[in-house]
């Protein structure tokens, strides 16, 4: 087994160490029109359902402090309570839990091309991909998340000193012209050439990828993502194969499909319906357990819901038998038991507001597993 403190090739190997996101100092835009283009494109699938997603009109000068507000006190306290209970559960099961640095306060951030606000490291899966003993920081899709991984760097520095490899993918300029709107607009978009002489830039999140040993399945919906898939394949080389699947979501795939063990997929009923034939041929032969549970929490009309009602499909395998699931997902619990799994029900309130379930808010750093081929 690899001596590095980082070792993870799949989503289901026996879990030994994991990072769980922080909760403090999160924020939401006061009004949808305050968000910038990168925000609207990233959360398109959910914002468009709330009729708040004008990606063609004027985009403003970037998020400012007066444009955002903290999560409501009750919601923040309940989320913190549930995350801390989740951490205690994992530690009780013998898993080492690490945490990113807490965001002390929300501050203005800027590059030479744009300005925004700092963001807390809650959904830590999004911008870091673990492949074996390597940490790969992916090129951001949201301007406000550009420096988010700084909150994880003390951990990554420690892992690097312990023998892990640490790579940062090329960082985008993130001009307005850098973003491909094809997925949002439903029609091809001519490649724009921005002021810097660039066309569409490479931008993708690690949470667009699912790991199956020597094979990685990556959801691609834009030219930004497609460049990312090309870079990831070149970077990983001949030991790994990156399989592209098209338009299973605006960005992240772990709310649509999750491998639970070799030969078994957990799938979102709405996302996978009629599309299983678009998966890699090897995956089409796997058994599929369907998630029909929805998060029916009622919020006021003024709330921006950043994840869909199918967030319950976002589960975390601890090994080939045990799976952490939302405690309210009664159909999922019964179905998993029927298929020989041991579901571990855990409460995680306000996942739609915080844009993440159990897989989103965690980053498995070490699983007890060698590199194998499952396709």
UniProtKB/TrEMBL annotation:
<dbReference type="GO" id="GO:0015069">
    <property type="term" value="F:scyllo-inosamine-4-phosphate amidinotransferase activity"/>
</dbReference>
<feature type="active site">
    <location>
        <position position="252"/>
    </location>
</feature>
<protein>
    <submittedName>
        <fullName>Scyllo-inosamine-4-phosphate amidinotransferase</fullName>
        <ecNumber>2.1.4.2</ecNumber>
    </submittedName>
</protein>
<keyword id="KW-0808">Transferase</keyword>
<comment type="similarity">
    <text>Belongs to the amidinotransferase family.</text>
</comment>
<dbReference type="InterPro" id="IPR033195">
    <property type="entry name" value="AmidinoTrfase"/>
</dbReference>
<feature type="active site" description="Amidino-cysteine intermediate">
    <location>
        <position position="360"/>
    </location>
</feature>
<feature type="active site">
    <location>
        <position position="205"/>
    </location>
</feature>
């Amino acid at each position: 087994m690899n001596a590095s403190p980082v070792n993870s090739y799949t989503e289901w190997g026996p879990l030994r160490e994991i990072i769980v996101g922080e909760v403090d100092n999160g924020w939401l835009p006061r009004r949808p029109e305050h968000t910038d283009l990168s925000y609207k494109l990233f959360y398109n699938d959910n914002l468009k359902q709330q009729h708040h997603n004008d990606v063609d009109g004027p985009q403003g000068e970037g998020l400012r402090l007066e444009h955002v507000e903290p999560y409501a006190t009750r919601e923040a306290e309940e989320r913190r309570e549930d995350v801390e209970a989740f951490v205690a559960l994992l530690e009780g099961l013998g898993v080492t839990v690490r945490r990113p640095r807490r965001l002390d306060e929300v501050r203005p951030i800027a590059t030479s091309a744009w300005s925004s606000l700092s963001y807390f490291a809650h959904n830590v899966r999004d911008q870091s991909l673990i492949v074996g003993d390597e940490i790969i920081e992916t090129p951001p899709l949201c301007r406000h998340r550009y420096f988010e991984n700084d909150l994880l760097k003390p951990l990554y520095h420690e892992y690097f000193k312990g023998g892990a490899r640490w790579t940062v993918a090329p960082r985008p300029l993130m001009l307005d012209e850098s973003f491909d709107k094809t997925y949002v607009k439903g029609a091809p978009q001519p490649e724009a050439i921005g002021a810097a002489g660039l066309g569409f830039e490479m931008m993708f999140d690690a949470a667009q990828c699912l790991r199956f040993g020597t094979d990685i399945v990556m959801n691609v919906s834009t030219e930004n993502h497609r460049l990312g898939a090309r870079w990831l394949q070149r970077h990983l080389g001949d030991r790994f194969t990156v399989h592209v699947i098209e338009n299973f979501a605006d960005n992240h795939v772990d709310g649509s499909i999750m491998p639970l063990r070799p030969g078994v997929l957990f799938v979102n009923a709405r996302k996978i319906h009629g599309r299983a034939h678009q998966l890699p041929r090897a995956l089409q032969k796997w058994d599929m357990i369907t998630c029909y549970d929805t998060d029916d929490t009622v919020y006021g009309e003024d709330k921006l819901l950043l994840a869909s009602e199918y967030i319950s499909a976002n589960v975390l395998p601890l090994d080939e038998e045990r799976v952490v699931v939302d405690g309210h997902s009664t159909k999922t619990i019964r179905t998993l038991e029927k298929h020989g799994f041991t579901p571990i029900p855990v409460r995680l309130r306000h996942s739609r507001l915080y844009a993440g379930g159990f897989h989103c808010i965690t980053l498995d750093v070490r699983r007890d597993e060698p590199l194998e081929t499952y396709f």
